[in-house]
Amino acid sequence: MIPALDRQFVFVTGKGGVGKTTVATALGLAVAARGRRSIVCEVGAQQRVPRLFGLEPPGGGGELEVAPGLATTSIEPNAVLRHWLDVQLGSRPLSALLSRSPVFGFFLAAVPGAREVITLAQAWNLAQPQRWGGREQGYDTVIVDAPAYGHALGMLQTPRTFGDIARFGTVRRQADRVRSLLIDARRTAYVVVALPEEMPVTETLELQHELHDEVGIGPTVVVANGMLAQRFSVAELARLEAEPSDGRAPEIEAALVAARSHGRRARAQQAQLRRLRRGAEAPVVTLPELLDSDLGARQLGRLARELGRRLA
Ligand SMILES: Nc1ncnc2c1ncn2[C@@H]1O[C@H](COP(=O)(O)OP(=O)(O)OP(=O)(O)O)[C@@H](O)[C@H]1O
Ligand SMILES: [Mg+2]
To answer: 148: Cβ below 6 Å to ligand 1?
Structure first.
């Protein structure tokens, strides 16, 4: 069993388009199924999770319950900073005015890592029993759907950089707290999502080294997403390949071509999965490629059950 579902903070990362949002959401459902309150945080302007459940995203960085025990929110640094000003000043109109001041934009643009620290600090805040700026209770598990590699690693690295720059005060304390969470393997899990294809596997193996460099710990689990079922044995595949392709009805010909292509793709995936398993320092779990053109609550539930079976 792999302890990823009982952590306070789960960072889901991987290359663009490999299924991070899908896996983050399925993980959230799997966590909720164990009776833990969980939240999936999208980063930046993305708000895909509510739509996966057929819901409209809430405005203004709000939290929305999308399934029993699972909420979602989108963390946008500008909005977080404005909220911070609201609380500090105790006045929304005043903070609205201030946030239009050039200093506000200057702060976000000029301080390296400011956006990332704010994002991570906000995610950290969601896991606190006593949440800053709100009366709500914190979540048991906060899952961050991190942007593709470069940016995700930037997010991991910045509390250090930022903490070095901001030597004193609340910002420094915040950066330190976030950093201590990120490097704590008992509280934080890193889930790396990969596709079972050559380049994505190579990139995933590189990412785990980078993770070591950035946070001193490797992935907790690697998810090989989109695995095709292998419907043919080696002998059956050879038989399909050997079949001459002339003189048949077009329907039969098309079926043969499709079967060969599926067989080849599945075999190539298996080879890449073996490569991933050899190189990964964390357990690799697989998720099937679902054939539905749009994934919704039902499909996510299925992926969540798969993950729940494999992760403890
Ligand atoms: N196991 C799966 N079976 C079928 N379709 C999948 C599966 N996983 C992801 N998809 C589909 O692949 C597409 C990309 O998935 P997703 O949005 O989760 O990737 P991402 O890594 O978050 O992308 P981005 O880097 O753009 O944020 C989506 O259309 C999603 O529905
Ligand atoms: Mg995504």
So the answer is: yes
